[in-house]
Structures are given as structure tokens and as C-alpha cells.
Amino acid sequence: LIINPDVPVKTATWKNGIAGVMSVTVDDGEDAGFDELQSNGFEGTFVNSGITPPSYYTSFFNAGMELGSHLTNHRCEIIPDDILRYQEIEPNISGICINTPQPCEDVITLVWPCAISNYREQDVASEYYLSARGDDSNQLEDATPENFMNLKFYAHEYIPNPPDLKTIVDLAVAQQKWFIMCLHAVTNDDGAIDYSKSQDIWV
Question: pTM above 0.85?
């Protein structure tokens, strides 16, 4: 038994005792938010539908960004297991790792198209991914999510329209929760990415 009284042990909700967490996810093969993330030394997740990701995904990956799945055909509906597995998930993952430097085993994040899924689809997805963004109710996610295959997120495109997203950064810090941001074609983050650099939040 080694006891070092000069370095006391303490529990923390997040890594290194940071108060809150923010993740930035960008849908539909878009490049929104990349400049803001890179200029602040942050990493984000960029997801693509189809089997051929944008050519800039290689430079995004080399810059430290994560590449994730948005399924092959962006179907905004509940579909049978076999179609989900063999026509939507597997071709989409293969397209990412064939056309970018990111290995197939590192494609661990899914974004449900149109935030639509059910428990059966989520169960199938859990065989391929560690997490999936899907609950569009504009809420913070808990430090230990109830459902990793349907994570809560914020986006201005969904109802109820959230307030200035900088206030959601503050809320995540105050409540020690996880703020997952969704962007599409434009960086409509209300300056939250830049703002978070000066806050007690891990991005």
C-alpha cells in the first residue's frame, strides 16, 4: 500500500475534474464548424451518408477529426433489421474506411438520419457502434446516458428551438452534463465553439 498525502485522490464526473463536456457533430457530409474547431484546438465528429465521403474528409481526419456514420441512404423511417444492417450500416462504414485513412474499426459513432430510430434498430446499431446521436428534444445528456444508442442533442433545426447555444455551454458546466451540438450546412452555433475555449468544459 502506497500512500501519498501530497497528491490526494478525489472523484470527478469528467476527465481531469472538468465541469462539463461539449461534443460537436456535423451531419450530411458538410464541413460546418471545421475552422472553428481547428482554430481552437478542438476535435469534432463529421458524419456522411452514402458510400463515398467528401474528398476533404481525408484532411479532416488528418487534422484530428472523427469520421462517423449517417447510414447509406439517409432514410428517415424505421426499416427492417436486414436492410439496416446490410444496406445501410455496413456499406456506409466500408465507404468511410475505403476512401479515407480512418480504419473501419474506428468508425464507432452513428447519427440517426432525421433523429428517427426505435429500440430494435438501436439494438442492431449497438453491434457496430459505441454511441448514436438521436434524441432531438434539445436537452443536455447525462454524464452516464440512459441510452448510448439515442443520445440527446441540441440543434437550431429542431423544435423547441434552443436559445443562444453559448447559454447551453454554461448550462452544461453548471449541471456537469454533456452538451452534444448538431450542425448541418452552416455553423449556426451562436459562437458557442469559440466561447467554450474560455469555459470549464471539455470539447
Answer: yes
